[in-house]
Structure formats: structure tokens, C-alpha cells
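Input record, target 12 of the design panel.
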């Protein structure tokens, strides 16, 4: 277990360096802010994972926050990725995990090692705009009823283009009983076309 505590400390620093390098390469004005916090191993040894926050050009803040303890499996450690505006996209919705590989530990996104392509896609999504107009109103209604918007729902709202489709989606968010009912209705409405009017 000690190896995992060392891994979260080292790999969260490595992640912060990758983030700083990405921000520099993209020419963003603000520098990422890092902070460390203490976690204690079962042997009562202190380790210091690194948290990173980035102020984005569109006004929202992105944070990479390691959990305060390993995952329940005892073999991995979760790093939560969150935008302050509540936007959730598939590329970062599951966060990052520190997991054991053959010769040590590595950063993972879902079940893949965090490679350059995934890292670039993640930053493209983290820096892009959120919902606007009617889609934003629907998103706010969803959030007020059920909490954060799942990545799948967010993608459906972003893709909706027709006014009547958006009206029906808004109605579904306001009238369906459960979150599952709303998500099912939105899934059906995502396939809506103007000839169905």
C-alpha cells in the first residue's frame, strides 16, 4: 500500500508539470496554481499529493483534485477533474486514476494510460465554452433538480439545434419524475427532426 501513497504524491506532481507545460504551449495568460495537502498512510507516514487549479479564459476554473485516500479497491487513487461552471464532458468526466502497471504506477483515463492524445482532447474540452441560450436554461433546470449534469446529457443539450426540440427537452426536464425518466426522454428527443413536428 505504501507504493500507492508514494505514487499519488509523485504522479500528482508529474500531472501538475504536464498541465503547466500545456498551459505554456497554448499561450494562456494565467499560470496554474498548485497546492499540496497531507494524507496519511496506514503506517501513519505523511504524503503530499498536489492539487492544481487553472483559471480559464471564459471565466471558469478547472481543478484537478486527488482524493484524500485510495479507492475502495486499495489498488488505485482517483484524481477528480471539475469545472466551476458545472460543465461535464466525456473526456474528463471520470477523472484520472493512478493505477499499478508492470513496473510501477501510471496515470489512467478510464482503462487507458493517459497518453498525449487523451491529454490534448481533455484540455480541448476543459477550455471550450459551456451551454448557451435555451440549452443553458435546460441545463440549469436539470442541475437544480438532480445535481450535476452527466456528460451524456450535456452532449445531448450541446447537439440540440431546433427550437421545438429544445422546447420538448425543457418540458421533459421540468415534468418527468426521475432523473432516469428525464435522461431517457432526452435520449429519445436527441433523435428528433423537424419533420416530426
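The sequence produced for target 12 reads:
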Amino acid at each position: 500500500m505504501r507504493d500507492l501513497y508514494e505514487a499519488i504524491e509523485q504522479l500528482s506532481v508529474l500531472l501538475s508539470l504536464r498541465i503547466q507545460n500545456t498551459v505554456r504551449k497554448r499561450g494562456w495568460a494565467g499560470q496554474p496554481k498548485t497546492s499540496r495537502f497531507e494524507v496519511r498512510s496506514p503506517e501513519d507516514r505523511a504524503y503530499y499529493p498536489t492539487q492544481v487549479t487553472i483559471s480559464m479564459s471564459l471565466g471558469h476554473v478547472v481543478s484537478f483534485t486527488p482524493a484524500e485516500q485510495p479507492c475502495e479497491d486499495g489498488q488505485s487513487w482517483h484524481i477528480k477533474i471539475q469545472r466551476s461552471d458545472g460543465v461535464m464532458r466525456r473526456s474528463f468526466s471520470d477523472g484520472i486514476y493512478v493505477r499499478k502497471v508492470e513496473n510501477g504506477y501510471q496515470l489512467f483515463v478510464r482503462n487507458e494510460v493517459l497518453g498525449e492524445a487523451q491529454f490534448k482532447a481533455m484540455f480541448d474540452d476543459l477550455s471550450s465554452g459551456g451551454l448557451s441560450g435555451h440549452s443553458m436554461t435546460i441545463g440549469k433546470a436539470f442541475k437544480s433538480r438532480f445535481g450535476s449534469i452527466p456528460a451524456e446529457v450535456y452532449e445531448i443539450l450541446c447537439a440540440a439545434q431546433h427550437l421545438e426540440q429544445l422546447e420538448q427537452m425543457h418540458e421533459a426536464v421540468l415534468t418527468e419524475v426521475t432523473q432516469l425518466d428525464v435522461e431517457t426522454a432526452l435520449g429519445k428527443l436527441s433523435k428528433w427532426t423537424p419533420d416530426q413536428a
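The first strand starts at residue 33 and ends at 36.
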